Amino acid sequence: MSFESTPYKDKKVISIGIVSELTGLSFRQIRYYEERKLIFPERNEKGTRRYSFSDIEKLVEIANKREEGVQTHEIRKEMKQERTKSVEKNVLKDMLRGQFNAHFRNNNNNSM
Amino acid sequence: MSFESTPYKDKKVISIGIVSELTGLSFRQIRYYEERKLIFPERNEKGTRRYSFSDIEKLVEIANKREEGVQTHEIRKEMKQERTKSVEKNVLKDMLRGQFNAHFRNNNNNSM
DNA sequence: CGTGTAAGGAATTCTGACACG
DNA sequence: CGTGTAAGGAATTCTGACACG
Q1: For residue A21, which of A13, A12, A30 has the smallest C-alpha distance?
Q2: Residues of chain A with confidence (pLDDT) below 50
Q3: Is there a contact between B6 and A53 if contact means CB atoms under 8 Å apart?
Q4: Residue B11: phi, psi to the nearest 5?
Q5: Has residue A79 been placed in a domain?
């Protein structure tokens, strides 16, 4: 019923050069964070990496953590926790939507 | 008051190869439509073109028009009209917001 | 551990031009 | 008018490795 028709934020279309420009990180750093499983760019047929805006946001977060001296291993753990929280939030949202729909199931005939 | 903090849709970050993949158009066609002032990619320092998701949407529209046999010159005119309409719509929106704000100026103390 | 760098190769993109129609 | 293509050059990206610490 509810579609994400244009999730530009997650489309993997940006090359590493632009990502470097946008984040201020070196190619070496960007590739290394991939090696450490912090980001997951896609590849085109020829093997060049493609990143999304989400990846760029993640990289900025990573850069901040690194400046604080946090190791990639720790950052990885923290990001896993974030993902779990996010899943929980969605579960909660679904439950609320369920209640909401139940409540209005029988008297939703006028407003579109 | 209302900010577009992350207008990913208009960020010029995509190279012509990806645009070609996404639209199905050839490099030649994409560059030609720029020459005819239908799209306006940016350039990085070294001169390579960078497109936005908006540009890609425009290109798809252009491709559809071209298939119908519409010439680039006509397409250009049509797109100018679209822009004008869009401006008018915003003017209307601003007027409505003005009235809305005036109406609630004195009794907006509870709900955020 | 995290990052820099030189190395060699492969893929990308650019421009201006000739071609066809 | 709109698009294809071959041409030559410049810029981009890739991998694996050595280096420092």
Answers
A1: A30
A2: 110-112
A3: yes
A4: -75, 130
A5: yes
* Helix, coil or strand: residue B50: strand
Euclidean distance between CA atoms B58 and B42, whole angstroms: 15
Q: Which of B32, B7, B5, B27 is nearest to B17 (CA)?
A: B27
Note the pLDDT of residue B111: 46
Mutation target among B4, B5, B6, B8 for the A interface, most CBs of A within 10 A: B8
| Residues 43-102 of A, Cβ under 7 A from nucleic strand D | 47-49
The domain total for chain B is 1
In a domain, B3, yes or no: no
The CATH code of the domain that includes A34 is: 1.10.1660.10
Give me the mean pLDDT over the B6-26 stretch: 95
Question: Is residue A111 a part of any domain in this protein?
Answer: no
Contact assignment for A11 to B50 by CB distance below 8 Å: no
- Domain span at B37: 8-104
In the block, tokens 């909401």 appear at A100
Find the closest chain A residue to B22 by CA distance.
A13
Q: What is the pLDDT of residues B78-94, one digit of tens each?
A: 998 888 877 887 778 77
Out of B6, B14, B44, closest to residue A13 by CB: B14
Please state at what angle helix A27-35 crosses helix A16-23, rounded to 10 degrees.
Answer: 100
Q: Which residue of B5, B15, B48 to mutate against A (max A Cβ within 10 Å)?
A: B15
